[in-house]
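[recover] target loaded
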């Protein structure tokens, strides 16, 4: 069988061969005969005891097909599983249907867009009493032009129902998503409220700790002021017992304190060294410069040097826990 380019399949063999193979061959059993337009479709099969394996797996079909028709052919090939395709050409496809499975192109009748479109399905089944064989079943040609309008309307209804079902599923999924999002928002709000409560508690504790820290800092500052005061008092006490020049302690012997007019005190030996000697044969007041404040003070030679004893004030005993 081959296509004549107008959507029909014709037998490429002579009438005598067809007559001999179909009507005179005792191994062939005719099951159905049907006429479609000017074509005679004969459905036949071999008897079980005459079944043999095919000599080749290729079926040579030559035809001219426009590219628009190839699109539908490719669509048919996509519907059929790859392992079930036996042969595919420019205008035909031969495929097998495994036992227990439905025909994938059963609902594709009427999809062709040409006048008198015809689909021929070739089914191959392993069968045989001895050693097995292959049974080839050719479905009769079916004219689809009369049922084209009905099929188109039916497909439109099916397509609309499919779209409605898809829309229902989409709306159902969106409703579930919205419910899940609402629950998630409630959970997040509860978590946020709990976090705000914990943050408020932490802030209150932080304020209490800050107040405690400030109190401790004030106490530390007061203790530091007391320590500084006691340290200065100790330094003043020690300084009042030392000569401002030689830094030796005063005693009741030679190192007695002498108070100058500026108020600073030095020991006797240092006072003698600090006096500027007058010119010879002149009786003037002795002059010296205070080593502390650098003021010029006078020492009167007419009077004896008065020794002033310095009695420092009594300082309180610092606490034992303070490091002075």
């Amino acid at each position: 069988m081959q296509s004549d380019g107008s959507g029909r399949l014709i037998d490429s063999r002579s009438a005598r061969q067809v007559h001999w193979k179909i009507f005179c061959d005792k191994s062939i059993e005719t099951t159905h005969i049907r006429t479609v337009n000017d074509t005679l479709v004969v459905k036949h099969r071999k008897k079980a005891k005459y079944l043999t394996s095919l000599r080749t797996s290729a079926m040579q079909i030559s035809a001219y097909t426009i590219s628009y028709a190839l699109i539908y052919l490719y669509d048919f090939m996509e519907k059929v599983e790859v392992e079930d395709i036996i042969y595919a050409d420019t205008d035909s496809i031969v495929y097998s249907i495994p036992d227990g499975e439905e025909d994938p192109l059963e609902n594709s009748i009427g999809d062709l867009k040409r006048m008198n479109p015809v689909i021929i399905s070739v089914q191959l089944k392993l069968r045989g009493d001895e050693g097995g064989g292959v049974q080839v079943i050719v479905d009769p040609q079916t004219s689809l032009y009369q049922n084209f309008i009905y099929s188109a309307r039916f497909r439109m209804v099916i397509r609309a129902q499919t779209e409605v079902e898809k829309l229902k599923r989409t709306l159902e999924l969106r409703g579930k998503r919205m419910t899940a999002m609402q629950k998630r928002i409630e959970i997040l709000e509860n978590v946020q409220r709990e976090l705000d409560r914990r943050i408020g508690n932490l802030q209150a504790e932080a304020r209490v700790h800050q107040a405690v820290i400030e109190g401790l800092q004030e106490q530390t500052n007061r203790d530091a002021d007391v320590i500084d005061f006691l340290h200065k008092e100790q330094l003043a006490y020690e300084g009042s017992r030392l000569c401002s020049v030689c830094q030796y302690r005063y005693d009741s012997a030679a190192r007695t304190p002498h108070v100058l007019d500026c108020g600073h005190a030095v020991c006797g030996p240092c006072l003698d060294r600090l006096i500027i000697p007058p010119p010879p044969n002149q009786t003037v007041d002795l002059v010296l410069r205070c080593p502390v404040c650098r003021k010029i003070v006078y020492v009167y030679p007419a009077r004896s040097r008065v020794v002033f004893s310095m009695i420092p004030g009594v300082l309180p005993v610092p606490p034992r826990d303070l490091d002075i």
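[recover] notes: The first helix runs from residue 15 to 24.
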